[in-house]
Design goal:
Length: 313
Amino acid sequence: MKKLGIIILITAIIMYGFCLKVSAHCQSDEKQENAGNKNESTKGTIGKDLGTVEENNSALNLKAGNRRLNILESLEGPSFDIKKYSKKEEWDEEDNEQEHARRRSRFRGHWSGIEFGFNNYLSSDKSFSMPADIDYMTLHSSKSSCFNINFTQLSLGLTRHFGFVTGLGLNWNNYRFDGNNNIQKGPIGIIEELDPELNLEKSKLATLFLTLPLMLELQIPVENNRLHIAAGPIGALKLGSHTKMVFENGHTEKTYGDFSLNMLRYGATARVGYGNFQLYGTYYATSLFQSRKGPAGNDLYPFEIGVALAFNN
């Protein structure tokens, strides 16, 4: 009689789960434009702690007494897993672990995307004004720009709204000189002024770096989106550099070289945004040029600020 009751109970649970599944599919057909429903789960309870049915896109969980039947969908077809628990606490503990894992897996940071901003550098005394002996390093601030493509991202959630974010990006910097000059690498590697002897339309130093951040990000739900704040260290590896001069007559000269630039640099980056839009800033504690090889032996510390459009959602 007891076995017959259990069979009837399981049959009722399966039928109830089937009905819920049919209902969920019907609702999905009516609201296909709501992409958020893809990860929603359906849960039903029979009696008081008699049994439950949980269904989502990839699994159907049936609970009765101290037993649980998990039916998992995969490309190879459904798989079945039956577990027996000696105590209700074991059941609850497993549910809590699974829910915590699901919350962590839903964390998505804001790094991958594109960024556009302006770059400059500070002198050794953290001033925008260059010392008199290297006045030729003064930049045209409004035309010294940067462009970044952050092409890969890894999010490590500690909770649903808090975790680590890292990835890789490409960082293009254009340092547009304000004077009628450019720079060159001297005989012993020290950066010197280059006089073109003709009038220039524009002149710049361009660099390309591979960047790697490690940020902590906090997300605050606001209405239907999230306000997010992230900050942390960032490192960069130089991939290339060149100078460019465009003369008034239209002639262009490009010179490729290392220009005594530091191969590796590190600093800090921070960003704040809403949805996929962000404001960001990055400052490097490593000098742009190698030690004692900057202009007249001076150290210059680069930074950039700008806007970003993230591709995480």
